[in-house]
Amino acid sequence: MADITHWADVIADEVLAKGTKHLVATGITPSGHIHIGNMREVVTADVAYRALIDKGAEAEFIYIADTYDPLRKVYPFLDEASYAQHVGKPLSEIPCPCGEHKSYSEHFLEPFLGALEHLGIHPKVYRADELYKEGVYAEAIKQALVKKDEIAAILQKLSGKTPAETWSPFNPICSECGKINTTIVKGFDLDAETVDYDCSCGNSGTVSMNGGGKLTWRVDWPARWKALGVTVEPYGKDHASRGGSYDTGVAIVKDIFGSEAPHPIVYEWIMLGKQGAMSSSTGVVVSISDMLKVVPPEVLRYLIIRTKPEKHIRFDPALPLLTLVDEFERLHSSDNATSYDKRMIELSHAAGLCHTDIPFKHMTTIYQVAAGDFDRILNIVKRAGYDTSNEKCIRELAENVGNWLEMYAPDNAKFSVQEELPVMAATITDFQRAFLISFSDLLDKSGELTGEDYHNLVYSSKEPGSELNTMIANAMEVAPESLQVDPKELFKAIYISVLGQASGPKAGWFLSSLEKDFLARRFREAAAYRP
RNA sequence: GGGCUCGUAGCUCAGUCAGGCAGAGCGUCUGGCUUUUAACCAGACGGCCUAGGGUUCAAAUCCCUACGAGCCCGCCA
């Protein structure tokens, strides 16, 4: 099988065949909590952008927040009484639900931009309301108003729907009621750059083309392509049907604005676990912030990058997440990764993205040993010999792991170090006692031990003549030759003493994560326990 | 009703654009390592490539049809 080219590089090649200068754009409406499908859009765009850069293209990456869109309805998470009056107004002109932000749109935009930062995605951010107010769309608005009938014909022909008599590609914002979907255009003045309107609230007036209103979506999109020079843009499959907004956009940008449509990248939705497609109506929703709570950012990137955009992605935050993380880490440290694997890893990393070499699984042990206390986590990580120069990354990983344990981990992944000797110590056998007391003495005598040291030490009990073997024999008052040691029993004794359960995480990692003095004390205590 | 996308091992998916011996990881099983486990090493099992037809010396791949899954088609992204 020939080397496989990653889809991002395939796209880059296709796009490069059209020219070397590119603008990758992505746009999302901050009308509510920005969800996981939107995350796929920006990661997809970011990867396409990076593939272009890697191939030497002169590329830029922008994100446009559609802050000038009207509020469609009072969403369930909004207060009916106070938001009913704002339906129809541009999002940027509506008060923030929590009162902390400048506007409604900023309320949802801000956490999303934070998530982008988190994922190492750094587009130039534009807000649609600012673009309109700055006059970026003025030329397109004029052309759209002049060629209104042509646009209507295109919409009619491609989407099969007849625009209303009073339809206009430009929707003025009423100066009286502030709404954008209740006005009817009565006329316009190209020189003054103004539009006259009547509003259903009874008001009429004149607005500026620069911020006084906005183009309707199906015209706004192609206008944006033209005004900003967009050449590559991913969008959800909801826009991809025949007669959908991409189709009409292609025709409008060509016939009305005299420009080209961007190279399309259609992407599928992300499905959640076994519950099917994510949808707000069925209640199957994972917000980006929930997702980022448990998945390290580069793993989330990997999840999206490994799958071609047009295939759906199944995301299951329970045990399959652990498999995904493992797969990523294995690939990451693999010596014989294919060029395709390497490319995926490369694209999963990103400028400014946190990366530590601490495996997620190991952190689940460390985190639980430390009971989530970050100073203790850091100490253990240091002792285990990991690089601790990037404390911020370690903190992020620890938070992911902590959230995962709390929200999604299966029971067999969980344990807690008992403050007091567990009552289960009553089940400890004489042989296990002999081991625990001997082990405890050895710990007192030795210096700091690594995970491997602990591991080897426990197994040394099997070797005749080893210090531990001799000590156990003495404690049992038998001849060393007749001592039968099954390491399984020893591990069990350790888990019982510390966790109060018969099994636990890999002993080496586990023991080296705990204080040696604590272990010595606890083992001695367990050995002495006689109910 | 119209449209878009997908269907390949028990699971998650590569491979389809450019036709040339059916692939990977995970899981399962076997063996190994003084190695407990959610570890590591070696190997095995595992497929009518959703079904049917067509083109071809040759089809998972191209064409047509059917079936299944998800979604879009209310100008509200």
Question: What is the strand and helix layout of this fold?
Answer:
Elements: H1 7-16, E1 21-28, H2 36-54, E2 58-65, H3 80-83, H4 104-118, E3 124-127, H5 128-133, H6 138-146, H7 148-159, E4 170-172, E5 183-189, E6 194-199, E7 204-208, E8 213-215, H8 217-228, E9 232-236, H9 245-255, E10 263-267, E11 270-272, E12 276-277, H10 288-294, H11 297-305, E13 313-315, H12 319-333, H13 339-348, H14 360-369, H15 374-383, H16 391-407, H17 430-445, H18 451-460, H19 467-476, H20 487-499, H21 507-513, H22 516-528
Parallel strand pairs: 1-2, 2-3, 9-10, 11-13
Antiparallel strand pairs: 4-8, 5-6, 6-7, 11-12
Helix pairs in contact: 1-2, 6-8, 7-9, 8-9, 11-13, 14-16, 17-19, 17-20, 17-22, 18-21
The structure holds one RNA strand of 77 nucleotides.
Care to describe what's here?
With 531 residues, this protein is α/β, with parallel strands linked by helices. It has helices at 7-16, 36-54, 80-83, 104-118, 128-133, 138-146, 148-159, 217-228, 245-255, 288-294, 297-305, 319-333, 339-348, 360-369, 374-383, 391-407, 430-445, 451-460, 467-476, 487-499, 507-513, 516-528, and strands at 21-28, 58-65, 124-127, 170-172, 183-189, 194-199, 204-208, 213-215, 232-236, 263-267, 270-272, 276-277, 313-315. The protein has a three-stranded parallel β-sheet with strand order 1-2-3. Helix 7 packs antiparallel against helix 9 (245-255). The structure holds one RNA strand of 77 nucleotides.
